[in-house]
Amino acid sequence: MLKTETRTRIKGRIARILLNTPDGSLTKYRVAKLAGCGYPWTHTVLKRLEADGIVKGTRVEEIGALFSWWRRWQPAPKYRGYMVRDPLDVVRNSGLEYVLTTYVAENKMQNYLFPSRTDIYV
Hints:
Layout: H1 3-20, H2 28-35, H3 39-51, E1 55-56, E2 59-60, H4 63-72, H5 87-94, E3 99-101, H6 102-109, E4 119-121
Antiparallel strand pairs: 1-2, 3-4
């Protein structure tokens, strides 16, 4: 793993910890331990956030700004997932060719399983 990827993940973890406990009750050392990184790195990140007026110590001052800062350090998603009430009706009515896999396909063939998830390849 590249050094910049590790730093990016650590920044994201620090931001998530602050977003989960915005009241400032955590010490900087505790934030470092929860983030799984060293105290000097955490101190540097928090100092940068404090200079931007986003946090004061470990208390979040501007939660919207912290969300924006956190978003910058998130990796691009590799895929998208959607929740659809009845996915088979949506696909049937779309006019597209599709293939079912996993439990839904097995349930259509043998009717032994109870599908809890539907994977569709369009």
